[in-house]
Design brief:
The chain is mostly helical. The chain is built from eleven helices and no strands.
């Protein structure tokens, strides 16, 4: 059972802005200068791989478990949602000071386009995230004694879900970039899971908002699965969401700068 001391320690950690803000703002690569000196690109790529793999394992594994526990779709979605929200929060909290906690090619793409992350590092991050997504779904399949090679058959793509993925991804990227720009990156381990958790129930797509997670979910024919054709459509919507987020964020950042200058 959790103790009050644990809750106070967690609150204190989340309230300590200096290390979390540095993780995003210390360098243009969204990694603190101290860690850049200690950790080369290789270790950071490994962190992104492991973090993304665990995220996909959480999403897919909790979906399989929920499906085995209840035939009620609403209850199953709630179980999947709660597991994803808590798992995502912990993974961001742990990996933020190590790699910047992108864990999502859409986030990496946004930082490339907005914050000047070197293209070579971005490609390494993106590749590790996508491979991590595949490793994560394999882990989930193994944990639940399912076939390793499985292609999802659940068609999810429609006009509504395409628009939903644009909304979910746009909101995610806007949230992250604005918190970083305002020096409030310490809120990211809480704010991002809350947004995704809300997206589970206010969007018809259940807020994938992550190409690596989408790729992984193509290879589990379970509650969390998505057929490859639908997955490709979701990924396209996520790219559109990144572009739209930048269109929204850049004027806000410019307006803030002008206000400060005045």
């Amino acid at each position: 059972m959790a103790t009050p001391g644990f809750g106070l320690c967690l609150f204190a950690l989340l309230s300590s802005e200096h290390w979390v803000n540095d993780a995003y703002c210390g360098t243009t690569c969204a990694v603190p200068i101290e860690i850049m000196k200690i950790m080369d690109l290789g270790p950071r790529v490994v962190v992104e791989f492991v973090g993304t793999a665990l995220l996909v394992a959480v999403v897919v594994g909790s979906g399989i478990m929920a499906q085995s526990l209840t035939s009620d779709g609403g209850v199953a979605l709630l179980l999947n949602q709660l597991s994803t929200v808590f798992g995502l929060g912990v993974l961001i909290l742990v990996t933020l000071p190590l790699s910047g906690a992108h864990l999502n090619p859409a986030v990496t793409l946004a930082f490339v386009l907005r914050r000047g992350v070197p293209l070579g590092e971005a490609l390494a991050y993106g590749a590790s995230q996508l491979i991590g997504g595949l490793a994560g779904v394999l882990l989930a399949q193994i944990m639940f004694d399912r076939p390793l090679l499985e292609v999802a058959t659940q068609e999810r793509l429609s006009v509504g879900t395409f628009v939903s993925e644009i909304v979910a991804t746009t909101g995610l990227i806007v949230l992250i970039l604005l918190l970083v720009d305002r020096g409030q990156a310490s809120l990211i381990p809480v704010a991002v899971p809350v947004w995704i958790g809300a997206g589970y129930v206010f969007t018809s797509s259940t807020a994938f908002a992550n190409p690596a997670v989408t790729l992984g979910r193509m290879f589990s024919d379970s509650f969390a699965g998505i057929a490859p054709l639908s997955g490709g459509g979701f990924m396209g919507a996520q790219v559109v969401g990144v572009a739209l987020a930048l269109v929204i964020v850049v004027p806000l950042m410019v307006h803030k700068k002008e206000a400060v200058d005045v």
